Amino acid sequence: MKYATIALAILITLTANSIAFADGSRDEVKVAIESLIGSELPDAAVVETATDGVYVIDINGTIYHALLKDSVLLIGEAFDLVRGVSLNEEISNRGISAAVSDLTSENMIIFAANDKKRHVTVFTDIDCSYCRRFHQEVPALNDAGLEVRYVAYPRAGIGSSSYDKIVTVWCSDNPQQAMTRSKAGEVLPALSCTNPVADHFQAGVEGGVRGTPTLVLDDGSVIGGFLPANDLLVRIGLKGS
Predict the structure, then answer these.
(1) Is 112 helix (H, G, I), strand (E, B) or coil?
(2) Which of 232, 236, 169 is nearest to 200 (CA)?
(3) What's the pLDDT tens digit per position in 173-188?
(4) Where are the domains of the chain?
(5) CATH second-level architecture of 98-235?
(6) Cα three-residue angle 94-225-75, rounded to 5 degrees
(7) Residue by residue, what is the 3-state secondary structure of the chain?
(8) 79: Cβ–Cβ under 8 A, 6 or more apart, which residues?
(9) What is the largest CA-CA distance in the chain?
């Protein structure tokens, strides 16, 4: 229903503005969307797909699929019915995975596994309740061989209270201990240092991270949201179902 609402709003706007389009080409789709959002899109934000007339649209990191016919623009989520997957989500996840690949583990806070079999990189926020729940599961994940690598993603943005808290964690003498204490609700004395928090946050924004925790596995697959340790371990093959 969400995307039906979006499509209806766009249909009304295009009709009201009497915008005429000939063949639904890439350039026409770009112009149509720009007329709706009131700003210009970079050329790379509109990409042709293998399906004739359907385009992938990236609006500030949010992925849509669009089809333009005459003055009707349909925009929303596309699904591959054979594989049963959302193509929007698949494209978005590739961006998130690429963002992680550009970061170095030396600037992450790592909770090492006892006998490492796999690793997961987690975009995290100190004040996120599900991030705190995830952190409680870290010992069980480590025991099963899953290394947890934290990347900073203060959802309220740079300069916020959440940003200051996570900077303090990164600047602590023992970041792992500080992460655990801070996620348990303890207010730590504010610290400042040269840190990667702003770079992590920007990489997440540009990659398309929309919430925390966002998990990126070592095979590039992405899991959005919290999973209990047992469910996560089963899902990634470190534990039988």
Answers:
(1) coil
(2) 169
(3) 999 999 999 999 999 9
(4) 2-77, 98-235
(5) 3-Layer(aba) Sandwich (3.40)
(6) 55
(7) CHHHHHHHHHHHHHHHCCCCCCCCCHHHHHHHHHHHHCCCCCHHHEEECCCCCEEEEEECCEEEEEEEECCEEEEECCEECCCCEEHHHHHHHHHHHHHHHCCCHHHCEEECCCCCCEEEEEEECCCCHHHHHHHHHHHHHHHCCEEEEEEECCCCCCCCHHHHHHHHHHHCCCHHHHHHHHHCCCCCCCCCCCCCHHHHHHHHHHHCCCCCCEEEECCCCEEECCCCHHHHHHHCCCCCC
(8) 85, 86, 87
(9) 64
Tokens representing 32?
């149509």
What is the pTM assigned to this prediction?
0.78
36-45 LR contacts (CB < 8 Å, sep 24+):
36/10, 36/73
Alpha-carbon torsion 154, 129, 225, 100, what sign? positive
Strand 46-48 versus strand 54-59 pairing type? antiparallel
Paired with 86 in beta bridges are 79
pLDDT in tens, the chain (241 residues): 343 434 434 443 444 444 555 567 888 889 888 888 888 999 888 999 988 889 999 887 788 999 888 778 888 889 989 888 888 888 888 889 999 999 999 999 999 998 999 999 999 999 999 999 999 999 999 999 999 999 999 999 999 999 999 999 999 999 999 999 999 999 999 999 999 999 999 999 989 898 999 999 999 999 999 999 999 999 999 987 6
